[in-house]
Automatic annotation (TrEMBL):
Its EC number is 1.2.4.2. This is 2-oxoglutarate dehydrogenase E1 component. It holds the Pfam family OxoGdeHyase_C. Belongs to the alpha-ketoglutarate dehydrogenase family. Its cofactor is thiamine diphosphate. One of its GO terms (cellular component) is oxoglutarate dehydrogenase complex. It comes from Simplicispira hankyongi. The lineage of its organism: Bacteria, Pseudomonadati, Pseudomonadota, Betaproteobacteria, Burkholderiales.
């Protein structure tokens, strides 16, 4: 024995299971049996192995802590005629036997670090002592010693050490490197061990399958080379160096079809996108060429570049037709991920497929983006939550080992692998060498099988290279000289595989023949994806045609009959006797019941609830999500009543809106994770695939939309004009200057106004309960689907002046402009000298001040819809006051924020000659609001007084 103990000896000193250590080990073993996570990782691996060794009495029963743990290490006398050379009384052999189990665990845990994964052969094999027999003090003489292997799946109960090590290296250190041992679920770990070890991670494709793989490689390379010579220097984000990705997609689709999947929704950024469009989804090459030639039909107001385009098709698989959808996406890379997940969830709900057996999300990533973009983490965090799960996503990383512009992996991430973020949800990862297309295909098979078995995310990391630059105008050798010297010497994956098949006697020159045939198809602009179906239509397809070509001025019938009102009101205010509500909640429901009977004006929460109730009763599902949505951030909603005597969420809550009628549409309210970007993108994706569901995302505070700005900019505001994607998502953004500081005042109304054009969305700021009722119903009952941005209030939720009489719900509609309400002012319209136009809460401040001043020569008009601006209604209101010479726009927000810079032009357009337009509000500010209460009050008083005072500052004259 060496004087300085090895790492293994030190470990053995703490874990030897005989003598004085036995009570300690037995106690730890008992803890392990009760909860495997309660013991250190090395002990857990040790005991995991122990569970697959028969008990001392020869039975197959699992050992229990009441039996001496040491007995579990007793050697079998004989197994299948092979003698196991271990004696339970021999301490040295006992140590070796334990060491074998340690060695097996080491290969399962870190074997992938020795795997042959780099096509460029630039990565040196790291020093990992745990994978070397010498680490465990095995000698050459031990190589032929037979050890127990019953806890493996190599097909033998016992194996010589040499054979066992070879089997482990073949399985875990070949062209597939597997990471899965960090999972806490033993079933998942054993599943991977069985799948990988039983075949030693080696595929077994027949001759026809291998030829098909070569054909797919040829198609992938052929398209890139054709485009490279025909459209020199044009951006296309080439797949060259990663052609095995097309093999992966083909295998995934085929295996998915065999397992019952009927729809696959794909999200990916740029790299390889054109290749997927043509060679996987079957886009006609001539249509792609037209986009390069700038001769494609321009039927959208703005359109988008070709590598952002989506596409849909149907393909035949061994299990039947499968519908493929490639999502449209911007250059913001990974933001498409939650959009895809939302689209998948909508399709699942439409099919009544809660576990995702029929619909599969597939997300394709770049290595740098997967490691670097936070929306990845946010999307993964949604994966197993009830409101957002999609039954597991198959992730594919096109890992070109260089990312975007970084020259050193140390600068592209802080983790060993770009995929390490998925360990947060314990998703397995298969790293695979892109130069072994058969291994890539096998990895896709295993990934899909795992997903279907465990309904969990799984990752296939295809390690390849990028032959050209980030785009075709880039010269990567400027910063990567040695890497690109290697790439220049690489013959290409297709050539390597063609030579490999030729060596197997599967056809000399077969690859060249396929390449010529593909080039001929390209020249003719023909289909290159043979399995595309041209006349198949799923019964689950959505018809968007009723929602196209309609005008926003079509209001729809949003009022409901009084009898229906009372019936619905009774249903949504009745709490079963089996549920004990909190006293405050009980009062809310009692008050709402009185509102339903017409005994009190209807407040905001009741108006909102009645909109939801009437919609689900009419067959329109409602999906409401966001932080604190169940009760509402300002506790005005209480859509979910929590039983004060039970705490379990599944039995301790009651949702009245889910009990409106026997055959009602679903009402879903979700308290989301603390994410804005991923959750809003998810809901956008959901709404993009279900025009008949009212999909609402509610921000906890309106300014929290900051965290989802990319979704608003790239999808909600521009998706229709770029891609023709119609969407009816609704955003509820609490907005109002209540003295709560800069972060809890503004929903950044000005940003939505700035994004408003081409009638792309609706921006409203309702000020009464009946207005929120009608605008929510309008969003569904009329045949128009545009994003609806609602600046919802805070103080108005409980302001009695914002409550509405019951009659405003049983007749009327959403008013884009609410006229002057004071009848004394209306009767003396000829005496009105000034019209104050405003939007939102400030209206009530203005009315209060006018009453104090007794200024009946001032009219106050509310603009409830800021975009599209209601010119006709606003002009009609101005005409009611023919003697008014001054128009003032009054707002809570600073001058450079809010609606002022946008509505001033609209107001000016509707003024008559001689009229002047002025502004009253907070001065321009870099911050949305002040943080000091006294300063807020001073500003508020000043802007209200200014609305009635002399025009000053910037004044527009007609």
């Amino acid at each position: 024995m060496n004087e300085t103990p090895s790492v293994y000896q030190a470990y053995q000193g703490n874990t030897y299971l005989f003598g004085g250590n036995a009570p300690y080990v037995e106690e730890m073993y008992e803890n392990y049996l009760a909860n495997p996570g309660s013991v250190p990782d090395n002990w857990r691996d040790y005991f995991d192995a122990l569970q697959h060794v028969p008990a001392a009495d020869g039975s197959d029963a699992r050992d229990v802590p009441h039996l001496p743990v040491v007995n579990a290490f007793a050697e079998r006398a004989k197994q299948g005629g092979t003698k196991v050379v271990v004696a339970s009384t021999d301490a040295d052999m006992g140590r070796k036997r334990t060491a074998v189990q340690q060695l097996i665990a080491a290969y399962r845990n870190v074997g992938q670090r020795w795997a042959d994964l780099d096509p460029l052969k630039r990565t040196e094999r790291p020093e990992i002592p745990e994978l070397e027999p010498a680490f465990y003090e095995f000698k050459d003489a031990d190589q032929e010693t037979v050890f127990d292997a019953s806890n493996t799946f190599f097909g033998k109960e016992s194996m010589p050490l040499r054979e066992l090590i070879n089997a482990l290296r073949e399985t875990y250190c070949g062209t597939i490197g597997a990471e899965y041992m960090y999972a806490t679920d033993q079933n998942q770990k054993r599943w991977w061990q069985q799948k990988l070890e039983s075949i030693r991670s080696k595929p077994a494709f027949n001759a026809e399958q291998k030829k098909h793989i070569l054909e797919r490689l040829t198609a992938a390379e052929g398209l890139e080379r054709f485009l490279h010579t025909k459209y020199v220097g044009q951006k296309r984000f080439s797949l060259e160096g990663g052609e095995s990705f097309i093999v992966a997609m083909d295998e995934l689709i085929q295996v998915a079809g065999e397992t019952g999947v009927q729809e696959i929704v794909i999200g990916m950024a740029h790299r390889g996108r054109l290749n997927v469009l043509v060679n996987t989804l079957g886009k006609m090459p001539k249509d792609l060429f037209a986009e390069f030639d700038h001769t494609a039909p321009e039927d959208l107001p703005s359109g988008d570049v070709k590598y952002h385009q989506g596409f849909s098709s149907d393909v035949s698989t061994r299990g039947g037709p499968v519908h493929l959808s490639l999502a449209f996406n911007p250059s913001h890379l990974e933001i498409v991920n939650p959009v895809v997940e939302g689209s998948v969830r909508a399709r699942m709900d439409r099919r009544d497929d809660p576990h995702g057996k029929q619909v599969l999300p597939v997300l394709v990533h770049g290595d740098a983006a997967f490691a670097g973009q936070g929306v990845i983490q946010e999307t993964l965090a949604l994966a197993q939550t009830r409101g957002y799960t999609t039954g597991g996503t198959v992730h594919i990383v096109i890992n070109n080992q260089i990312g975007f512009t970084t020259s050193d992996p140390r600068d592209s991430r802080s983790t060993l692998y770009c995929t390490d973020v998925v360990k947060m949800i314990e998703s397995p990862v298969l790293h695979v060498n892109g130069d072994d297309p058969e291994a890539v295909a096998l990895a896709m098979q295993l990934a899909l099988q795992f997903r279907m078995e465990f309904r969990k995310d799984v990752v296939v990391d295809i390690i390849c290279f990028r032959k050209l630059g980030h785009n075709e105008q880039d010269t990567p050798s400027l910063t990567q000289p040695l890497m690109y010297k290697k790439i220049g010497q690489h013959p290409g994956t297709r050539k390597l595989y063609a030579d490999r098949l030729a060596a197997q006697g599967l056809g000399e020159g077969l690859g060249d023949e396929m390449a010529r045939d593909y080039r001929a198809a390209m020249d003719a602009g023909r289909h290159t994806a043979e399995r595309v179906l041209t006349n198949f239509k799923s019964k689950y397809a959505v018809d968007w045609s009723p929602f196209l070509g309609n005008k926003w001025t079509d209001a729809g019938d949003t009022a409901i009959p009084l009898t229906e009102w009372k019936r619905l009101a009774e249903r949504i205010t009745t709490i079963p006797e089996s549920v004990t509500p909190h006293q405050l909640v009980k009062k809310v429901y009692d008050d709402r019941a009185a509102m339903g009977r017409g005994e009190h004006p209807v407040d905001w929460g009741m108006g909102e609830h009645m909109a939801f109730a009437s919609l689900v009763a009419s067959g329109y599902p409602v999906r409401l999500s966001g932080e604190d949505c169940g009760r509402g951030t300002f506790t005005h909603r209480h859509a979910v009543v929590h039983d004060q005597k039970r705490e379990k969420w599944d039995v301790g809550s009651y949702t009245p809106l889910q009990n409106v009628a026997e055959n009602q549409a679903p009402f879903t309210v979700i308290d989301s994770i603390l994410s804005e970007e991923a959750v809003l993108a998810f809901e956008y994706g959901y709404a993009s695939n279900d025009p008949n569901t009212l999909v609402i995302w509610e921000a906890q505070f309106g300014d929290f939309a900051n965290g989802a700005q990319v979704v608003i900019d790239q999808f909600i505001a521009s998706g229709e004009v770029k891609w023709g994607r119609v969407n009816g998502i609704t955003l509820m953004l609490p907005h109002g200057y209540e003295g709560q500081g800069p972060e809890h005042s503004s929903a950044r109304l000005e940003r939505f106004m700035q994004l408003s054009a081409d009638t792309n969305m609706q921006v409203v700021q309702p000020t009464t309960a009946s207005q929120i009722f009608h605008v929510l119903r309008r969003q569904m009952v009329r045949n128009l689907r545009k994003p609806l941005i609602i600046m919802t209030p805070k103080s108005l939720l409980r302001n009695k002046d914002a409550a509405s009489p019951l009659s405003e719900f049983t007749k009327g509609a959403f008013q884009t402009v609410i006229p002057e309400q004071n009848q004394d002012v209306v009767k003396n319209a000829a005496k009105v000298k000034r019209v104050i136009a405003c939007s939102g809460k400030v209206y009530y401040d203005l009315v209060k001040r006018r009453t104090e001043m007794e200024s009946l020569d001032v009219a106050i008009v509310r603009v409830e819809q800021l975009y599209p601006f209601p010119h006709k209604a606003f002009a009609a209101e101005l005409k009611r006051f023919p003697k008014a010479t001054e128009i003032v726009w009054c707002q809570d927000e600073p001058q450079n924020q809010g609606a002022w810079f946008f509505v001033q032009h609209y107001i000016h357009e509707n003024m008559v000659d001689g009229q002047k337009l002025g502004y009253s509000g907070r001065a321009a500010s870099a911050s949305p609001a002040v943080g000091y209460s006294h300063l807020h009050q001073e500003q508020q008083k000043s802007l209200v007084d200014g609305a009635f005072g002399k025009l000053k500052g910037f004044v527009l004259t007609k």
